[in-house]
Amino acid sequence: MAVEALAARPKAKQRVGDRVFSTLSVVSGSLILVILAAVAIFLIVQAFPALTADSSSFTGAPTSFWAYVGPFVFGTIWAAILALAIAVPLSLGIALFITHYAPRRLAVALGYVIDLLAAVPSVVYGLWGALVLAPFVQPFFAWLSENLGWIPLFGGTVSGTGRTILTVALVLAVMIIPIITAISREIFLQTPKLHEEAALALGATRWEMIQMAVLPFGRPGIVSASMLGLGRALGETMAVALVLSPAAVYSFFLLTSSNPNTIAANIALNFPESFGIDVNKLIATGLILFIITFVVNFIARLIVNRRKEFSGAN
């Protein structure tokens, strides 16, 4: 009887606005998947001729496509990792200073400045890195090689121009610091005040309170922010192309003039002069970059899902 009563109960009349909003939401959400699938299909179709072609059909290519793309994959990942290693500690420090140490007026001003840095075009960062940063850091690179040359990363002959993979990493770090800082700042501000006050009431210092309450709560957000910054670093084009003097090499040396190139910069530099199968070859390298970015974001999602115990709902 109860089931029949529920079934007989009249349903609420759905308004026109509700139906329109629901339809737009479904279409918008589906559109993202459609665009992603369209990009993937385009890359696969255009890359297939290069992946199956004989290496002799490529202009100046190595023995195979994988031998050609290998140094660029290495350079892309290596530059992004270096940039992330520089940017994450600085971004977290800035975010913590804004949210827990700086006076209110200073925190607001710094927040505006950080947000504005994210709007600077990448070509401006590239010009700054090539014309200003590289000559400025070259004496420091020479000092590193002279005093810390026994460390493999600082070995080799120092570049006389300062335009090295480390300079690129510094430029990329400056570019992704606003992204990581802005997201981390908002995450830290969402930390429950009761958690912070409880830690302080138990006698913790401000830094101990941050270690016990703020950082554990914001860990999933920090991972997400870092992965967004990593995605920006992996796909950056003009800044790398303007700063770096690239070569198709595998090299962990940070200060030498022989530096590995990135996939995005290689496409930007060679696409205008390419034709025929060489265009497919460049698109195939773009497919590799697409896969790398997808894998990085998938791994980040797994990490975030495993840290759900640190969510604010608990």
Automatic annotation (TrEMBL):
GO terms for molecular function: phosphate transmembrane transporter activity. Keywords: Cell membrane, Membrane, Phosphate transport, Transmembrane, Transmembrane helix, Transport. GO terms for cellular component: plasma membrane. Its main location: membrane. The chain crosses the membrane at residues 20-45, 65-98, 110-143, 163-183, 233-253, 282-304. It is found in: Cell membrane. InterPro entries: MetI-like, MetI-like_sf, Phosphate_PstC, Phosphate_Transport_Permease. SUPFAM superfamilies: MetI-like. Residues 73-300 form the ABC transmembrane type-1 domain. The keyword Cell wall biogenesis/degradation does not apply. It is a multi-pass membrane protein. PANTHER family: PHOSPHATE TRANSPORT SYSTEM PERMEASE PROTEIN PST, PHOSPHATE TRANSPORT SYSTEM PERMEASE PROTEIN PSTC. Part of the binding-protein-dependent transport system for phosphate; probably responsible for the translocation of the substrate across the membrane. Belongs to the binding-protein-dependent transport system permease family. CysTW subfamily. This is Phosphate transport system permease protein.
